[in-house]
Amino acid sequence: MTIELLADHLDALPTLARWQHSEWGDLRVGDTLEARTARLEREVGRDQIPLTVVALANTEVLGSASLVAHDMDTRPELTPWLAGVFVGPEYRRRGIASELVRRIVAEAARLRVPLLYLYTMQSEKLYENLGWAVEERTKYRGHEVVIMTCKPADITK
Fold first, then answer.
1. I want to staple 84 with a disulfide (CB 3.0 to 4.6 A). Which of 54, 66, 92, 115 is the partner?
2. What domain count does the chain have?
3. What is the pLDDT of residues 19-47, one digit of tens each?
4. What's the CATH number where 14 sits?
């Protein structure tokens, strides 16, 4: 498995957009696959935020994760965010999500991000095991979520 920039593998976009829309489409009222695809297309940077990485096994798409400026419209003062960590259902429980998170944290460290945020509804333990700390528990779009933080420079040492 390799983790590479989505900018170098744009053919993965339709699969990733379909997976993400299926998983999180209900978080945005009126969201569509087309809108999700357009958002993902805007996250295809290389040396700046936003950027997305994709996990690949040869040419097979396994999952992705993004580094974005904002991920919670109710918390615009918090920036930047690890977002959209997703592994295809048939590839889960193989450490792929952890590798995707580590790569985004490394990208954030490279870009000298002092503090990185994420929110999750169900993967708190995964992120704690990767060095993230709980910042706050709150409700977001009708769901109980936990906001977590990490200092990329500390985690990538």
1. 66
2. 1
3. 888 887 666 667 788 988 888 888 899 99
4. 3.40.630.30
